[in-house]
Amino acid sequence: MRRFAISAILLAASQVVSSAVVDGRDGLLAREEDREMDYLNEAVFLSECQKLKKGTNEQVALEDFLLYFPVYDYVRYNNSLDIGDVATAPFPKSQRVDAMGTHVDWTLATGDDKITAKFPTIGRTFSVWDLDDEGDPDTNVTGVADLGGKGMLCYDEPWSFKMDRNGWDYKCHAPYYCTRERRMIRRTVFDIYETTTAVEIEGLPKRKNGGKLDERIEGMVGNAFFYLQLADRDGVGGAYEYAIDFRLKKHTIRFDIQKGQREGDPKYDAERIKLISEHLYEVVTPEIVKKVKTKTCYGSNTCIYTVPFPSQIKVQVQTALQEQLNWQPTDVIDIYVDVKENAECGNDAVLAKTLSGLFAGIAAVATGGYSAAASVLGGITGGYHTAACLG
C-alpha cells in the first residue's frame, strides 16, 4: 500500500489571502479573473453507488459516477446535493470486486493511463491518476486530477450520501474527492477553557413563572454573545466590555478583537463576526442555561440566579494551503467574562469538553473538508483547554 506525498511549496511569508489560487509561475498568491474565481470551490466526487428500487432497499445494480459540484460548501457543510453534472461508468479501467459487487478501481489510473470522462452539461473533460489507498497522513492528499485544463488535487476523505436519479434511489460512497490545486482554505476554531465564572442574573422566582426559569435569563445569556457584533461595530484593535445583566452590572463580557483583514481588503467578509456570534449563541447558550442555579431570592418577585459562563473563549479564523494545512490565523477574538466584585470561579471540564464537541459537531458532515469561500467560516472545530482558578 502506497502513501501519496507532495513537495512543500515555498510562499512569501507576508502573503495570507483566502480564496486565492497560487500562481505557480512566480510563487505569489494571486487573484485570477472573476470568472476563474467562480470555479475555485468546484469539486468532483468519485462515487460508488448501489442502485435501489424507489422507496426500498432492494438493490438492482451497482453504478459508479463522477459527480461535479460547482460549490463544494453546499455539499459538505449544508449536505445539499446540488449536482452540477454527472459522468457515468463504464470508465476505461479494470474493475475491483468487493462484498457488494463490482466497482471501478480508482487506484489503477496512472499518469500514462488515466481514468477520463467528459461531463456532458459543462462540457469539460475530467482525468484522474495516481490515487492511493491512503492519503498523506497529515493532509489526506492522494492523487492528481485535471478538469478542463485546470489542475486539481484529490483527497482521501470518504463521504457517504443518498441521491435520486432518473426515478431510482442511490446509496453512495465517495472514497475520494478532488478540488483545485493550491487552494487557500479556511477554518474557524472555537477554543473553550474549563474555568467558569458564576455570572449573576436577576429574574422572577420560578413559582411566579409557572415553575419555569424566567425567559429573561436565557435572553440575557444569549445577548452576551451577540454583544460581539456591537464590539465589532465599535471598533477593532481593542477590548470592548458589556454588562451581562444591565441591572445588576456585576459581571461583564469583554471582547478583544484582532482582525488580519479590514474593510476594503479583497477577501474581507463583513458577515464573519456575525456568523461567529451566532455560533456562540447557538452552541453555548443552551448548555450553560441547563446549569443555572438559584443563589438567593428576596421579596416576592426577585431571585438572583448564577450561570456558569466559560471564563475564556478564544476564536481563531485561520487559513492554509489545502495541500499543506499550514494553518495561520487571520482573525483572533478573545472573549473573557469579568467580575466587578466577589469573584466566584469554578472548574467544569465536562462543560468545556461538551462545548468543544458541539462546535466540532456543527460541521461533522464535512468529515475534514474545508471551504475556499471568503464568505463562510469554513471547517468549524472545537478545542479544549485546561485551566485553574487563581487565588
Description:
This protein is an alpha+beta fold and 391 residues long. The protein has 2 domains: 21-182, no CATH class; 186-385, no CATH class. Helices cover 16% and strands 42% of the residues. The strands form 5 sheets. Strands 3, 4, 5, 8, 9, 10, 11, 12 and 13 form a 9-stranded antiparallel sheet that branches. Strands 16-17-21-20-14-23 form a 6-stranded mixed sheet. Strand 10 and strand 11 form a beta hairpin. The longest helix is centred in the middle third of the chain and has 20 residues, at 215-234. It is elongated. Keywords: Signal. Residues 1-19 form the signal peptide.
Quick recap:
The protein is 16% helix and 42% strand.
Global Rg: 25 Å
Strands, count: 23
**Roughly what percent helix?**
10-25%
Biggest β-sheet: count, sense, barrel?
Answer: 9 strands, antiparallel
List unreliable stretches of 5+ residues.
1-36, 363-368
- Average pLDDT works out at 78
**Separation of termini?**
55 Å
Quaternary state of the chains: single chain
The number of helical runs is 5
Q: Give the tally of structural domains.
A: 2
H-E order = EEHEEHEEEEEEEEEEEHEEHEEEEEHE
Content of β-strand: 35-45%
Q: What spatial form do the alpha-carbon principal axes imply? A: elongated
Structural class assignment = alpha+beta
